[in-house]
């Protein structure tokens, strides 16, 4: 199978137990895992059996060692992760939502190693050897000016080498603070438009795509997808997650994939999720499922169905990584969503 490389920040995730609020849980115990969009995508791909590598910069200490060991335990290649004496391991704190109370994330990632490490420090020739697909998200360029420059350099280098690029928009309102003269939204729009010129497959939520890319959201999704792919000629596909719900615990989740060559929008069935264990990482699972299915040579209709089922199952798993097998995803695609015990 073709090699996939993802690049971005990985952090330590500190989540309050159950549905406790920060003030209830601290001082006390929290649940520690590792998380980050591109790392989550690599983890999901590797768990599905793909040849996936993750690239980042991490400080040279024991906690970063544990982070790398966690990725390796899933099958992610980590040999091109840089170890640095400058910078730190970022952290984010998570309070799960419940009923009508939404979840809350607090970031503590200023000065992370990957935010400080320049593009020249990475061995891109070695990183891209044997690579067919490169994955980046809108989170990495949001954390610092340097990280944005590295992300742009990386996608340009991938394009120069004939490597296809996937970008998950992943807009985060609490980030994008590195140019104070611009609002977070304006900075994100300017930066991501430059990056998307080198991207093959766009992935994103509909509202963020409309707001950030300056497309007319008055039309249907087919029209929106056509506008996005027309704006960025390198794009061959645009994929969207679709979500709505009445509370933090009840959500409807679906997806759509637009194929530019045929001008066809393929949609997946909507899953009604009534018991969400953890919704963070569901979009990453969707992106990983999309790319994994593309690697299998699946049709667009099969690809969006697989991606959507992967994203659905991720809601049932604690942590950002999607520990769902290919067989489980395919069973859900075929209608086996009753939650029966496997005996």
TrEMBL record:
GO terms for molecular function: kinase activity. InterPro entries: Carb_kinase_PfkB-like, PfkB_dom, Ribokinase-like. Residues 1-315 form the Carbohydrate kinase PfkB domain. The keyword Amino-acid biosynthesis does not apply. Keywords: Kinase, Transferase. The keyword Transferase applies. PANTHER family: 2-DEHYDRO-3-DEOXYGLUCONOKINASE_2-DEHYDRO-3-DEOXYGALACTONOKINASE, SUGAR KINASE. Belongs to the carbohydrate kinase PfkB family. This is 2-dehydro-3-deoxygluconokinase. It comes from Brevifollis gellanilyticus.
């Amino acid at each position: 199978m073709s090699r996939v490389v993802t690049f971005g920040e990985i952090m330590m995730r500190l989540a309050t137990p159950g549905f406790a609020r920060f003030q209830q849980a601290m001082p006390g115990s929290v649940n520690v895992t590792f998380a980050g969009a591109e790392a989550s995508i690599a983890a999901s791909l590797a768990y599905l059996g793909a040849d996936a590598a993750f690239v980042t910069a991490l400080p040279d200490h024991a906690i970063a060692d544990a982070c790398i060991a966690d990725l390796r335990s899933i099958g992610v290649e980590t040999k091109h992760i840089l170890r640095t004496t400058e910078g730190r391991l970022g952290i984010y704190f998570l309070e799960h939502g419940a009923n009508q109370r939404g979840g809350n994330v607090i970031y503590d990632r200023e000065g992370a190693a990957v935010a400080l490490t320049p593009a020249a420090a990475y061995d891109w020739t070695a990183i891209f050897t044997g690579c067919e697909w490169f994955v980046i998200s809108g989170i990495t360029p949001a954390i610092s000016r340097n990280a944005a420059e590295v992300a742009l350099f990386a996608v340009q280098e991938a394009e120069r080498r004939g490597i296809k690029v996937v970008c998950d928009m992943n807009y985060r309102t609490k980030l994008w603070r590195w140019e104070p003269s611009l609002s977070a939204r304006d900075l994100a729009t300017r930066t991501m438009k430059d990056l998307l010129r080198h991207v093959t497959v766009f992935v994103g939520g509909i509202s963020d795509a409309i707001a950030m890319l300056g497309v007319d959201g008055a039309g249907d999704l087919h029209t929106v997808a056509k506008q996005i792919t027309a704006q960025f000629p390198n794009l061959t596909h645009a994929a969207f997650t679709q979500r709505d719900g009445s509370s933090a615990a009840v959500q409807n989740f679906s997806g759509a994939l637009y194929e530019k060559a045929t001008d066809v929008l393929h949609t997946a069935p909507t899953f009604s999720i009534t018991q969400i264990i953890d919704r963070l990482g569901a979009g990453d699972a969707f992106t990983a499922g999309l790319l994994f299915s593309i690697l299998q040579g699946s049709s667009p209709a099969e690809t969006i169905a697989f991606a959507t089922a992967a994203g659905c199952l991720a809601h049932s798993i604690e942590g950002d990584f999607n520990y769902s097998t290919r067989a489980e995803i395919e069973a859900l695609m075929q209608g086996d969503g009753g939650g029966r015990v496997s005996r």
